[in-house]
Specification:
The complex is a heterodimer. By secondary structure, chain A is an all-alpha fold. Chain A has helices at 11-14, 31-55, 65-70, 74-107, 113-125, 128-146, 153-174, 178-187, 192-203, 205-221, 224-228, 234-244, 246-275; strands at residues 57-58, 61-62. Chain A has 13 helices and 2 strands, in the order ααββααααααααααα. In chain A, strands 1-2 form a two-stranded antiparallel sheet. Classes of the chains: A mainly alpha, B alpha+beta.
Amino acid sequence: MTAPTPDVLVPTAAAGRRDAPATPRRHRPSAARRLVLGAFGVLFLLPLFAMLEFSTRGVGGRSFAAWRAIVQDPDLVSAITISLELAVLTVAGMLLLLVPVATWVHLRLPHLRRLIEFICLLPLTIPAIVLVVGIAPIYAWVTYLLGDSSLTLAFVYVILVLPYAYRAIDNGLGAIDLRTLAEAARSLGAGWPTVLARVVVPNISGALLSASFLSVALVLGEFTLASLLAFNNMQVTINLLGKRDAAVSVAVSLAALLLAFVLLLVLSYVGRRRGSSGVTEEG
Amino acid sequence: MGYLELREVKKSFGGVLALDGLNLDLAAGELVSLLGPSGCGKTTALRIVAGFETADQGRVLVDGKDITGVPANRRDMGMVFQAYSLFPNMTALGNIQFGLRLRDVPAARRRQRAAELLELVGLEPHAAKYPHQLSGGQQQRVALARALAIQPKILLLDEPLSALDAKVRVTLRDEIRRIQSELGITTLFVTHDQEEALALSDRVGVMSEGRVEQLDTPARVYREPATPFVAQFVGVTNALEGRADGEAVVVDGHRLPADGAASHPRGAAIRLIVRPEEIRLSPVDGGTPTALPGTIVTQSFLGPVTRLTVRLESQDGQLLRVDVPSAEAERHAPGSRVAVEFAPRSSIVVPA
């Protein structure tokens, strides 16, 4: 089971943009367009319906036993909790790492932007197995120092979400006049932590939400690294469960997918809402 | 000793010299403008005073205290930027209160002070509006109120009017002057707009290549420029090449009386600078031997005056700009021949 691929979503770029028209023009979709949309709809929705159908099969009719079992299996509940905790830790780690770094790069080291972007994109280009081979010796130390909790996966997940999160935050920072705002705050007496907390963060909140939701979606769907590093998270447990009880496994997978879709819909809505706040100039 | 002093300040960016030993003094309560072309170093000087740039050499002193190494957030400088700089996530009132909040001013006092400042800039009804709901002029007024809220030692204005349309610019310019006079706050204003600098300032510092060429009252900068650069940069000018001859300048055989010529050695190559409004035109037959003949080429109506271009018959057909009262403009139709002359006192003589 893999996560929905967040890189196909574009609202990150639109999160902080202010030049979008307030009311988008409505087009009447052409027949060809409707056909393509319909085909893609079937392609995407059919597996989901199949999952729903499979997970609700019962003797002599529909049954929600598999869905009820999600909250009754202690291993699964524990794995879901760990994955949610991992999502929170990853988002916190990602924000703490990226917001100051990206802000500093924008303000003081603009010539390093390309290099930082390249470094952040690396996890996309390196296959998971290669990443694991490289990171396994480091995790031996992490386990030695911090114990073998699955929550330590947050370290590698912060790296894994860099490509999506950096791009979102970088776009957000590019959409505001960061230098002027930071200098205005500095001249009024703000130190750098205050500039970050009171000026930068509130003004790129859309971008931060995008980065966070994409990270959550990725963490909830991550299987390969957790499995190869021998940790238990939701996807690893779903995989094991699939061998024992396929219906519950499919029900959890569908629930995780739906949660990710909801997050991405919220993200898209936030991006559109912020994009539509037009500037009103009065002479 | 001034209230704000810059002493031998040098700054370069990647080998390009922006400030070349800049010296500047501002008295307490004075409004001084730094005026100059793009790249002359005026904004760099302001940013060094604000603490956003570090000087390579030299010192910045405020009230005798060296602040060269003090970070920007501890300098107590109020600054208004060229770009709109209000925090988009805060209302006008919130923006004005920002600096006070950082200084732990009690909420009631903060609100009172912000309300006073909003009244000062005439924006009380807009207190609850966000920056995107305000016009450019209103945003810059709020930015000014925000800068003043912290009762800064010095007010720094970095071309705050340049993004505004002409009418708003003039109104806000007058308001800045009124507020500055009312509060008696020492102000450094950076602009490339001569009219703005001359209209607003107690003194104007004309900058070129990282140095102040002349720091003087607007009237003296305009009428008695200290260097050829100042003469040609400030105001509209006409320049005629000639040779000094006692109390006159000889231009293509015409001996034009000029008070400043006597200080130059006889025969020295000099440049005679005359403002358009100092030139008098008369019918060519009635001209004097001290006048240059020419032909009117174009007429441009500028309101109270009409600007003529006159092509001289000497000086390889050089064009001169001449301002005449608009009421008399019809006497100077394009194509008419005229004699160009000016009073000896009205020209500026500088080495060529």
